[in-house]
Amino acid sequence: MYRTLSILLISLISICTAAQKSTVPVKLATDQSIGSAPSSTEADRPVDTKLSVDQLEKEAAAMYAHHSYSSVARIYEYMISRYGYSDKLYYNLGNAYYKSKNYAPAILNYERALRLNPGDQDARFNLEMCRTRIVDKINPVGVIIFTRWYQSLGNTFDSNTWGIFSIVLFLLFIASLFGFFFAKVTWLKKSSFFVGILSICVSILSLVYSGQQRNSIVYPDKAIVFSSTINVKSSPDQSGTDLFILHEGSKVTVLSSLGTWSEIELEDGSVGWLETKNIQII
Amino acid sequence: MKRCNFAVFYTIRSLDNGYRYKVFLNYMKNKLILVFLWMSICFSSNLFAADAVSFTADAPRTVVIGQNFNLVYSANVETRDLRIAEFNEFDILSGPFTSTMSSSTYVNGQYSSSTTYRFTYVLNAKKIGTFTIPSATAIVKGSRRTSNSLTIKVFPQDKQNRSNNNASSQASRGVGSSSSSSQNISSDQMFIRVVPSKSRVHEQEGLTVTYKVYTRVDIVGFENPKFPEFKGFMAQEVDVPQNQQWNLENYNGNNYRVATLKQTILYPQKSGTLIINKGTFDVTMRVRNQNNNRTKSIFDDFFETYSDVKKTVASNSIKIEVDPLPAGKPKNFCGVAGSLGMTSSITGTNVKANDAVTIRLKISGSGNLKMIPTPNFTFPPDFEVYDPKVNNAFKNTSHGVTGTKTIEYLFIPRYAGTFKIPAVSISYYDLSSRSYKTLTSDSYTLNVAKGSDSGGTVSGNFSDQEQVRMLNSDIRYLKTDIKPHKNLMLIYGQYWFWLCFILPFLFFTIFLIVNRKQVKANADISRVRNRKANKVAVKRLKQAGIFLKAGKKEAFYDEVLKALWGYTSDKLSIPLSRLSKETIESQLDDFQVNQDIKKEYMDILETCEYARFAPGDEGHAMDELYQKTMDVMNKMENTIKK
Fold first, then answer.
1. How close is the nearest chain A Cα to the Cα of B521, in Å?
2. What CATH number should be reported for the domain whose range is B162-323?
3. Angstrom distance (rounded) from CA B500 to CA A213
4. Sign of dihedral through CA atoms B589, B594, B597, B599?
5. Any CB–CB contact under 8 A between A163 and chain B?
6. With a threshold of 0.90, does the pTM exceed it?
7. pLDDT digits (tens, 9 = 90+) for B530-545
8. What one-character-per-residue DSSP string does A204-267 give?
9. In this structure, what are the phi and psi dihedrals at residue B126, rounded to the nearest 5 degrees?
């Protein structure tokens, strides 16, 4: 009996370590370069490529203080292309675009920052500021308050935090199972029962949230309109009936794509087709 | 009362009009006796009491060479012994003629009178240039007094006259009349000139444009003046005195009488070549009728006829070159080119809350002052700030607009504390140093003490609490420590992530299964033993019965004890190691065994242990004990089973 148990444990541990070795880092599916870089009226100073990340960051902050926002945006874009991304970098880039009054790229970058770190209150605040500046105001269709609670709770943490949270709670659940089955004292038995029920429920919820957040990163389906005005068609060709007009900065959900066309859905439920070049996937 | 007004009155209307003067002289010669007669009357009524004594010299400022003019010394009291200095530039043709003008009024019971004594010389300029007539002295009211000195500009003769060298009486009449016909007045007889003070200026730099009328004929009036629009300029009118004197001016070799029609200060608003267009005027001139058919009569001098002629005259158009202001305009450039100064003052820096405070800003100087904006102080948001009161005291002079702009900022601090009011600054282009200059006011630190509670608060009984006021909204600032990374590690969906759930669960399940099995196994053993307890005990007791019959006392007790201990151990699931009287007693209590049975049981145990090692009568006791044991065990079996 004990022998079989120990064999099982050893084999599991070896699998576990093997799995850890073979973790494949997730690559973001989106193209990092932003199509419509702002046309800068200021003197186009090339980014000094010799600077380190910290120096570039300081340089950008100094430029930001001097109100040369398009230079700031250029530095951050360069950092993304060279050193990779982070939620804070997207946030700062969004700020630079906002200040230079390029609201569509600003919204795109805030959304990207939020996708990586949904709990970022600053990015959420700035995104709301941005949304007041764009043309389209889309009212989401009848979302009941519980759904909103559910969504906003899910946006409190990112995928990894929810995952770790879920594991911890699951371990607590296991511990309370032990307590329930093996405790000799009655109150311990009772409390473990309730703790166990609660922790397994929250653990499952966290797991669901973790999965959702992860899917939004791995399979992004939200996009921002970059063309200043675009007619959304009823079918994926130019001769299709014009259904409605979208303006720069509006957020859409990509349902499917066919050739160079994408089927999009607005938050108010309207569905239509537009050419994929007009939007940028978050 | 009868109003008396005697006056000996003679006048020379146009002193520069030589012709008229000649007429006058002729007249004078005839009337001289009459004049002296009048004078004597005046002396007889010599009743004045002059308070202030004045003794002045007077002559036209500009004359033409060869032209006669009057030099008049006048005093308001009786004057004797007039002595004039020598002057070489002028010939004294005649004089001095002395005359007296006296006037006395009696109005509403107030009697006043004045007398003027005049000494008139007739002079003639000999040379061209600017000359000074030195001051003269005279004994006025008993003491010797000195008059003012005069400066006289002598112009050359008209070109025409010079070339003609015409010594006729017409020519000697000077500029006042000419040989032109009444119907046809050429443009060199009368024209209007626009004279700019500068022809090349900077943007916003003021220049004065003067409309001057040049004339050699008599002008009766101007009608319907159409001044051009000053396109590209900001114009400020300069007040021209209503009653203007004609001044003599030599222009293009001719002497003209000149008057200023209009003077305007212009501030160019854009750079480039700006043109001031022609203006038109309807001029009415009085021209002497010339009757060429008639022979010259002796009365012509006295009975000349004049007629009014109307003519539309256009002024010339001029070009002004305007240079742009140099680059590097400061941000707070106010659009003034000139010279400015700024001072600021405050009514007090140590005040109480709810007391009104005023900052007074004075900007003074010259330039296009209307362009000066009202600078805005940045007051703390808590202050109650009123609209600033602006007072402009500007004066348009021929040199430009000068004056002072006074701005009063009234505000009321509502809360105690120390507040800073930063300075304001404006910039202007300084024309003298050709550079931009910035004027900065003082900045103030205001110490506001708590105001008196009684009358101060506006809100009455309400508490002073208020919501935090949002002044503006802006996005939040940049984040630091941005740490970019190429790859994003997501734990969800990894093998080990799922293993973290599976492993603990597996561990628990296995543990539970193993545990359950063991528990079950243990439970089986005790049950068997429990079931068999009676049997074993009965077996032991049977053996004890055998020993009893054999009379083996020690073995009998030993066997009975074993039977009892073993039974309780099995029945009550007490391991042999923990077996003692105390544990048995407590366990029996747990099983709710009757106290009598328990006592009996414990007695037997004690008896057995005692009797084992005690000698004495055996047979009967052993028999009895045997029976008792059987009895107790039966009872116990029944009780525990329940």
1. 14
2. 2.60.40
3. 19
4. positive
5. yes
6. no
7. 777 778 888 888 888 8
8. HHHHHHHHHHHHHHHS--EEEE-SSEEEEESSSSTTSPEEEEEETT-EEEEEEEETTEEEEE-T
9. -105, -30
And the tokens for B562?
């074993």
Q: Is 60 exceeded by the pLDDT of residue B8?
A: no
Residue B473 at interface with chain A, using a CB cutoff of 8 Å: yes
CB B385 within 8 A of CB B411: yes
Report the gap between the CA of A176 and the closest CA in chain B (Å).
11
- At the second CATH level, the architecture of B18-155 is Sandwich (2.60)
Q: Do A214 and B483 touch (CB under 8 A)?
A: no
Measured CA to CA, the distance from residue B170 to residue B166 in angstroms comes to: 8
Identify residue B512 by its one-letter amino acid code. Answer: L
Q: Is residue A23 part of a domain?
A: no
Measure the CA–CA gap between B9 and B42, rounded to whole angstroms: 11
**Which ipTM was obtained for this model?**
0.74
Q: What is the 3-state secondary structure (H, E, C) of A155-218?
A: CCCCHHHHHHHHHHHHHHHHHHHHHHHHCCCHHHHHHHHHHHHHHHHHHHHHHHHHHHHHHHHH
CB A252 within 8 A of CB A279: yes
Question: A46: part of which helix (H) or strand (E)?
Answer: none
B520 touches chain A (CB under 8 A): no
The per-residue pLDDT for range A179-204, each reduced to its tens digit, is 998 888 889 999 999 999 999 999 99
The CATH T-level fold of domain B333-454 is Immunoglobulin-like (2.60.40)
Give A-chain residues touching B478 at CB under 8 angstroms.
Answer: 60-61, 64, 91-92, 95
Q: Are residues A206 and A245 in the same domain?
A: no
Q: Which domain holds residue A60?
A: 53-131
Residue of B nearest to A164 (CA): B491
Q: How far apart are CA B465 and CA B163, in angstroms?
A: 97
B472 touches A: beta carbon within 8 Å: no
